[in-house]
Amino acid sequence: MKRIVVSVISDLVTDQRVHKTAAFLHEEGADVLLVGRKLPDSLPVSRPYKVSRLKLWFRKGPFLFAEFNIRLFFFLLFKRMDVLVANDLDTLLANFLVAKIRRKELVYDTHEYYTGMPELTGRPVVRKIWETLERLTFPHLKYIYTVNGSIARLYREKYGKNLAIVRNIPQKIVRDKWPERSELELPEDKRIVILQGSGINMNRGAEEAIMAMKYLDAGVILLIIGGGEVYTQLIELVNKEYLHDRVIFKPRMPYDELMSYTRVSDIGLSLDKDTNINYRYSLPNKLFDYIQAGVPILCSNLVEVANIVNTWDIGVVTNSHDPENIAAEITRMLHNKEQYHNWKINLEKAAQTLHWENERHKLEEIYSPIIR
Q1: How confident is the model at residue 253 (pLDDT cuts 50, 70, 90)?
Q2: Rounded to 5 degrees, what angle do the CA atoms 109, 119, 86 make?
Q3: What confidence score (pLDDT) does residue 41 get?
Q4: Beta-bridge partner residues of 196
Q5: What pLDDT is stored for residue 40 in this prediction?
């Protein structure tokens, strides 16, 4: 039995991609340990594999990444394992060093084009540090995969390496009974537009979605579920604009609970802006969650997202983030009953293909040479 340690800097609760990877390895017969971060408000996790969460002094900034990698390095250095799996550049250094020292196999899953993150915009020194770290490690990696073809192409152009692609696709939903709106404390006489995500940050279109409520009739409400850098500011914006009765906030929650809210919604929003290379080529989890929940999508015109929506004909792609335009698009989507019905039919077809049971075969191709 191969002993595999998977590490990620998140607190594990809402990170479905890492969970699916760890669960896949566990199902393949490996002895899996998933290592993450413990926050003061972290919810408990119960998984079929082993879990360990590191408590850190620092919550954000460069000291967080430094402390996490130092703690992770010593944790891994003395841990019995055969394979290391690093998720994103912020866990790679510790894994890379331990793999070299102990001569173990290392797999790298890069969830995004890390050095293109918006958080690095206008911070040339910090960006240079991450780019140097990537340049020193990436060319020496043998097993690498990422979330979509656009990001794989960027890395191929930069380092001449071909990356495998495993998209952030959720498991096929199978459930006998779902909660009704009343059980979720949601109004039954309103149309619900949902925006979800654990990383609701700047330039994700959340502010515009809130302001769009000023141009929609009272029969439509906005449901925001998750967290992120601007979550507190969004609440302040709602208070400032007196939209308390038009916007409902819910905190981060376990995936099954989240999908209970998603499936009773009428439209799903994915409004990331093309402000940086990372957003331009993103393919967010929420897109596939909306598909599995059967919710028509209103999305911004980003390469990978628009391709999915247009290919399957499951919603509308908009070129404008103007709140009045967003409101108009939502109104048209809700009032065009024939088109809405067609979207629902197409969503059902898409959900039969775009689910984890199909996507997981790509992990088999990546890990088979390592774990067998």
Answers
A1: confident
A2: 15
A3: 79
A4: 225
A5: 83
Q: Closest Cα partner for 96 from 134, 131, 125?
A: 134
Judge whether 199 and 314 are in contact, CB under 8 Å.
no
pLDDT, tens digit, for every residue of 8-32?
998 888 788 999 999 999 999 999 9
HSE of 86, CA atoms in CB hemisphere, 13 A: 30
DSSP letters spanning 314-333: -EEEES---HHHHHHHHHHH
State yes or no: pLDDT of 120 exceeds 80.
no
Look-up: residue for tokens 């490690």?
A: 137
pLDDT digits (tens, 9 = 90+) for 68-86: 999 999 999 999 999 999 9
Q: 225: closest CA among 191, 260, 274?
A: 260
Give buried/exposed letters for 53-74 (b at 16+ CB in 10 A, else e). bbebeeeeeeebbeebbebbbe
The structure's pTM equals 0.86
DSSP string, 186-230: --TTSEEEEEEES---TTSSHHHHHHHGGGS-TTEEEEEEE--TT
Distance of CA 266 to the CA centre of its chain: 21
Provide CB contacts within 8 A for 153, sequence distance 6+.
none
In 3D space, the residue among 316, 276, 280 whose CA is nearest the CA of residue 296 turns out to be: 316
191: left (phi over 0), alpha (psi -120 to 50) or beta: beta
